[in-house]
Amino acid sequence: VPDTRLAAVDGLREPERREIDATIRRTREGFGLPCALELRLDRLDRLEAMLRDREDQLLAALADDLGKSATEAWGTEIGTVFGEIAHLRKLLPSWQRPRAVPSSAPLVPSRAWADRQPLGTVLVVAPWNYPVQLVLSPLAGALAAGNTVVVKPSEVAPAVAEVLADGLREFLGDCVGVVTGGVPETTRVLQHRFDHIFYTGNATVGRVVMRAAAEYLTPVTLELGGKSPAWVDGTADLEVAAARIAWGKFVNAGQTCVAPDYVMGPPEVLTALEPLLIAAIGRLYGPDPSISDSYGRIATARHLGRLTELLDQVDPEDVVTGGQRREDERYLAPTVIRSSQDGPFMQEEIFGPVLPLVPVEDHRAAIDAVNAREKPLALYVLSEDEAVRDGFRRNTSSGGMAIGAPLVHLAHPHLPFGGVGESGMGSYHGEYSLRTFSHERAVLDKPLKPDTLKMVYPPYSALKARG
Ligand code: NAD
Fold first, then answer.
1. pLDDT tens, 278-332?
2. What is the CA(154)–ligand 1 centre distance, in A?
3. What is the pTM for the complete model shown?
4. Whose CA is nearest to atom 17 of ligand 1?
5. Where in 278-427 does DSSP place strands (E)?
6. Residue 409 phi/psi, 5° resolution?
7. SS3 for 217?
8. Is the CB of 377 under 6 A from ligand 1?
9. Spatial separation of the C-alpha atoms in residues 213 and 215, rounded to whole Å
10. Which residues contact 228 (CB under 8 A, 6 or more apart)?
11. Is the complex ipTM more than 0.90?
């Protein structure tokens, strides 16, 4: 049936349009119920085999696109996906079993359970900052749940997109379709009907995705970003706090959705933190990070331009360390600045290697400051004071929270990962991926005899008489 909702898209030629449509149609045709457990496990095996086969190419592509060191790329991307696949494969059989619920007295005799079913064909749209993990981790979950999947890697990491497209077509061509390209291609993809859309990226495009999904009442998961704050106070070991914050901030040159965006603390604590952060950066990347093989690059000249424009608005007196840049290499040094709550870097998510230190009176003022902004994707508390930790936990809302270190909550296989409010909706990882990419069907089985339901049949006058 021709779909009248498929309109022309600016910047897309007829053959490209037809190829995208054919990819989506083929992926749809690949879906069928019930999608047995053995088939799902086989697909996870093939995903793992693809990753093993293309590992070296992916590492080279990550170095090309983002200047990622092989060790960091393994730790934050490839190794993470291997771990996710292994976790899904191990626990899928138990997660997939029908879940019996207790019988309900008014319905006796009967049995009831919830069945997890695949949704159909899922769309995964991924960004450039962790371009392997953010395609393959949701893909693994969607395949484990028995769906077929169309993936759209980011055009901002083109080398990775090409390796993934090639590998996925070779190893999983029967159940995964890949569309590469940018805005015109994604716009075309979004005109199609899917059974779920999983989008990771910024909130502006998140709105575009959600509008497109509304056309077919397609459910969405939106994995977005935001300004994730960190709180440090004098009860914390400041040397450890500085090391952990520097690591969480400057990994992938600050282009991490859950990176601590800025640090709040009492003024004297932030002053004490400054030399410790400088020392920590020195230990991580040496005296000149531009020649460190552990320090990444900014994705594009446009992204670097955004950061340097903001940096040029900062008073040089307020630059604690860093600020050096090299346009030809898309390099920006790990940078720490002093800022107020309304400084140039405090308007939007920074998404780069610049760390503002923002003094506040105490943790209550910091909680108010968090609550005055949109709900962040993550919140970090580095304090030994139980009342302070509890205060943040009870009185703020964020996608996730980690106490004592940034980023680590992401690595726990049994925790959901996702945002809330402006930082997103829905979650994934492990069993949460299975929930996201499945429909939980309620099933009730009531024997025809004895007909206990006759108690509720009309006429209701007779019902009343029966008491
Ligand atoms: P991006 O520019 O790669 O965009 C993401 C995807 O959206 C790409 O596939 C792109 O083709 C598509 N796209 C872009 N413009 C579009 C349009 N107008 N219409 C349709 N599709 C379009 O990545 P980005 O958005 O710059 O990513 C950075 C953001 O993502 C940050 O805000 C970051 O915090 C967030 N992020 C969130 C997570 C998470 O897991 N919550 C992870 C990584 C990044």
1. 999 999 999 999 999 999 999 999 999 999 999 999 999 999 999 999 999 999 9
2. 8
3. 0.96
4. 183
5. 319-321, 325-326, 331-332, 335-338, 354-359, 378-382, 400-403, 424-425
6. -65, -25
7. coil
8. yes
9. 5
10. 258, 259, 260, 261, 376, 377, 378, 379, 380, 398
11. yes
